[in-house]
Amino acid sequence: MLAAFEHIVPTYPLTWKITSFAVPEFESVWHFHREFELTYIRQGSGTRLIGDSVGDYSPGNLTLIGPEVPHTYVSTPGDTEHEAVVIQFKRDFLGRGFFDAPVFDGVSSLLDRASRGVSFTWADAPLRRLEQLPPAEKTVELLGLLLELSHHEAPLLAGEHESPALNKATAGRIESMVALMHREFASRLTLAQIAGAAHLAPSSASRVFARSTGSNVTIYLNVVRVNAACRLLRDTDLNISTVATDCGFSNLSNFNRRFRDVKNMTPRDYRAGFELT
């Protein structure tokens, strides 16, 4: 896979890094690094691309990925604020061989599984507490969080992958195509238009996107559109056919089919779930 390399500097005096931020939107930056990464979403929703896994994220989602796994988060248009906490650490942040001890077999297994991405639904309180502690206590709290996560079963997100090659030009092309799909998803986008954003022929764009992400352009665009539809179904009273049109689907039956592919339920059932809460 081809992505841009990101160099991570620990937050002194920690041997790992924690970053909290609030921004108007998450923009696509297709990248990888040598550290594990825990990302907790406090606010906002959108599309999450991890290795060859294309899915969505929303508040309460906590995702652990391993070193050199290409990834990016891109916001659903319309959400007004996006907040996240990102924790990045190397396997030896507590000392060489620390997690090789039998007592930490569960954490070691969790870190191994992170090579394919692992996602949890999580409460905010432990992360809030971690952020507020002094450095030594922060580190102990992070260890406790990893121990707690190791006790929970969670599905793997991505398939097996090889270490990505460093290629900033290709990463830039992926970002350009992703940015266009998120910006213009409501229109009748063609492969030629998406390829044009990366200054590629359609066949070349399809090949580069598939080789770099493990997905294809059509699947990614459908996920972006479905995620945008989820926001409208959740936050407005628009009828379902209007939601379909506003999110770029040509007809209601196609919308229902693609929505079920991504969410394993119908748009009507998705909306009903929020009406009951």
Main sheet characteristics: 5 strands, antiparallel
Share of helix, binned: 40-55%
Pattern of helices and strands? EEEEEEEEEHEHHEHHHHHHH
Note the gap between the termini: 41 Å
Figure out the total of helices: 10
The overall strand count is 11
Shape: globular
Number of domains: 2
What does this molecule look like?
- The structure is a single chain.
- The strands form three sheets. The protein has a five-stranded antiparallel β-sheet with strand order 2-9-4-7-10, with helices on one face.
- The longest helix has 19 residues, at 217-235.
- Helices cover 42% and strands 20% of the residues.
- The mean pLDDT is 87.
- It has two domains: 2-150, Jelly Rolls (Sandwich), CATH 2.60.120; 167-275, Homeodomain-like (Arc Repressor Mutant, subunit A, Orthogonal Bundle).
- The termini are far apart.
- The protein has 277 residues and is an alpha+beta fold.
- A hairpin with a 2-residue loop joins strand 5 (46-50) and strand 6.
